[in-house]
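Query form — protein tRNA-specific adenosine deaminase

QUESTION: What is the three-dimensional structure of this chain?
INPUT:
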Amino acid sequence: MQQHDEHWMRHALKLAQRAWDEGEVPVGAVLVQGDRVIGEGWNRPIGQHDPTAHAEIMALRQGGKILENYRLLDTTLYVTLEPCIMCAGAMVHSRITRLVYGASDEKTGAAGSLIDILGHPGMNHQIVLEGGLLAPECAGMLSDFFRQRREQKKALRKQLRDQEEE
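ANSWER: The structure tokens for tRNA-specific adenosine deaminase are given below.
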């Protein structure tokens, strides 16, 4: 099972790279039923002007269309970052069986880091949860992205100051 999970998480990391390439926060998600991909997603809220266009939501939407059902039974969602409250809620409503995520998110994580939507006993559906798979790689990609973004902003500010001095 571990090898199987790593395979799909590496696929999610490739999708996260697509987000980065598009200037989005690099998060990728892949929805699997059995051994087949039924949904893929990467963050696209900036490019699509859609606050709900998170990687997980995109993968769940695609899975629903493939299965022609809003219930995504017997599926596993692999995502590079612990889901936010919105995405966790969508997972509960879609009835995925299992969530495997990479990096924890202390600021917005809804699978136990900030709040535990998925493990809340009052939820009408419980999701099997496994966190931390390939966490160093998943977290590293996010750290590298934000470091690069900070450096770009710093360089732009310097360029503007230099232009003002001329």
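ADDITIONAL NOTE: The first strand starts at residue 28 and ends at 33.
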